[in-house]
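Lab notebook, bench 4. The sequencing result for the construct came back, and we need a structural model before the next group meeting so we can plan mutations. Quick request posted to the team channel:

Model the 3D structure of this chain.
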Amino acid sequence: MDYMEYLYEHLDLLMYLRYNPKWYKILYYEPNYFKQFIREAKTNLKITNYDKLENIKNRFNMIYSLASLMK
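Done. Here's the predicted structure in token form:
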């Protein structure tokens, strides 16, 4: 798997790498930490599946609240 190709396909992860340069050194010497990098980046960027579900739930609750105000 070409890591740089993957990062250029997912620009949000690439920007996370640029703002957290410690990962450059870690990934250069130990490329097997790439999955850990992805996990940390997704957690900090709030793009995990759990965060997406929470966002949908919050939107649904907001729409429900607005609908109940219209009654």
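The helical segments are 3-9, 11-19, 22-29, 34-45, 49-70.
Will bring this to the meeting.
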